[in-house]
Amino acid sequence: MNDVLFTGITGRLGIPLQGALRKRGISVACIIRRDAKEYACDLGGFKLLRADIASKESMAGIEGEIKGKVETTVHMATVGINSREEDMRKTIVEGSANVFRCAESSGCRNFLYLSSIAAAGWALPGEGPIDERSAIDKRRLGRFGRMKREAEERLLGMSGRSAMKTIVLRLGNVYGPPTKLSFVKPIWEMLKRRDRLYYNRIKNSCMWSPVYIDDVIDCILMLIERGLFSDGVYFLTGDENPRVEAIAGMMAAMISIRIEDMRLRRRDLAYFSLRKLPDLVRGCLRNPSFPDFAYSNERLKKVLGYIPKVGLEDGLKRTLKWAIEDRIFQKEA
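User: That's the sequence. What structure does it adopt?
Assistant: Structure tokens below.
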């Protein structure tokens, strides 16, 4: 197998992926922006290429180093959801196109883009899980989601004119050791505060679409090793679209907190003062309930043959164990 070219290998998903790549003996080249010594991870054994994906000229500068040596490119690099729109466009949209061109010029056959469920938008209550055929109004997308959707469409359009085949994986809310707390942290904090008001407001919502970090890594490795690439979009989520009530119930049982003992705090009750009531009513009329972030992974299973292995309860146990043992979470209230 030729090298697999990675972007984003120093990120929160890339760091645990590094060990899996070494264990499988996969030859890796990775694009990094800074000197390897500046990263808090071990990049030993990987071929390192210094370039900025947001710069077409910078990416063109490494084409000669990988020409004829790359079979698959895995593009994971991104920016945070709260980044400036200008930075999002440079990295997510233009950067993705630059990585594609570089991979195509090198003779790469397969391209894997790790996108996000944010590119799919959200469902109104009763609409059911979103799948790849769902026609979701783009007005339901936030800035990050719009940029991810634009990057997806651009890459698939470029792929349609290329011999290189592109798969887009829309990742759900990735969680699990050693790097990803995701939705586990806000639920933990709510339970430790015994915050009944917040719990009552969100308990019936699908606010997160969990996928355990090991399942994401296994899916990436499967695609690399089998080379099952044909242009398309897939949701990589777990098999459960849980309501917050279900997640909180599992976690509460694991840390010996009774949901029934959660209370309304005085400072929370202040929101119900007469002074705040008009604003509260107007807010409820505009947003009578939270939208659902629920997605179907059936296409991933049927077409690519990948089935997530870690269930939600097991994943939560592993994540809480790690967070408590590493003192990320303080067990005592």
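The two ends are 52 Å apart (CA to CA).
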